[in-house]
Give the backbone structure.
Amino acid sequence: MKNRHVLLIDKNSNTFGNIQDAPTEDINFHFANSINSANEALSRKQYAVGLIVLDAFISDNLEAIESLIAAHSRTEWIALASPALLEVPTVRSVIARAFYDYHTLPIDRQRLLMTIGHACGLADFRLALHQKPGDEPGYHGILGNSPAMRAFFQQLEKIVDADLPVLIGGETGTGKELVAQAIHAHSRRAQAPFVALNCGAVPQNLIQSELFGHERGAFTGAAQRKIGNIEAANGGILFLDEIGDLPLSLQPNLLRVLQERTITRIGSTQSIPVDFRIISATHVDLQKAIDNGTFREDLYYRLGVVHLNLPPLRARHGDIPLLANAIFNRLSASHPQCRANGFTTQALRVMNHYDWPGNVRELINRITRAVILCDGKLIGPADLGLNAEGNAQAARTLEEARASFDRNILEISLRNNGNNVSRAARQLGVSRVTFYRMMNKHNIAAPH
């Protein structure tokens, strides 16, 4: 059954005359008299088309109209405006970027109905291309349908509730923290804290305090008691990312906590019982680190009761279109200025042939760049920074190209979110800890 529901948004229903009363080929008209009531109506029902009388809401702020459209991107939007309003540059800009079409007031009924009919048809096409959130193939928010990921999900399903230490291996950018969060969310500890610490992002002189906490006056600068990450994770899950970067001098301390299930804050002699599940992750080969004397073998066996290895993106055959479209839908909904509706066939083909050395994180970064910078209706290879053969277009080294992309995306996200790190991290789909680590890696000063 085609969606032929149209939402009329106007403070004065008479603007539309008798359009909703006359025979209209099974088009069902509904009315909202404010932006808020329109949002409420759209949250309850999917409308194929939305009509907005801009003259009625222009004083309310164009940003509110843009936010409405961005939040309901699967509705096709048609603007209705007076000739005078259409001469305003800001109004013309919003119409060009956000609307399917526009009509000049007063309404030409037949012309408008024809446009609505075309927009309803386009909305049906678009709706068929989009899966509802949660319908995508994958496991608890981790998308994937490739043989490699299906095998990974089978392993993950077996250990979610086992309450054993888990060691997640995989290249940088594959989504190891997302796996840890999925384990937490679907384990018996789901209602307790999930505490994450990146061992490579904290200076060595501070990591002991971060893990174990300290008492007031324990050292210079310790002005008050600090609860460490291990104690904060009591009852829940402690996630230690880049465990291979944990200083060798601190590894016996962590081993002792795992054996005795107690901690002692720096500057204290009191043992505090702790009950937590530890999940750790690394992109380095810990067996080689053991051979090199930089990682303790006994700690390795304590952490790796269960091993999971997350496949790199280049090994996930068939997953790239699924991931790319899901990332695009999420990002375009939060960027009202995005003009694109999706990817060209060539862009999808090029992404399938690219090696993705930065894995899913690089895919997110390139699509974020395209969403922000693309001027066309479809994202092509050039918008992604790729050429027709699926190679990066920069003439720099691979590491320099990756670093440049990461830094640009971080800076753009911070600017777009008013230097709010939490909002910027959510927009990029990473944790606050990971965002800070990436800022530190690329020498981006923390906002004040």
User: Anything to note?
Assistant: The mean pLDDT is 85. The radius of gyration is 26 Å.
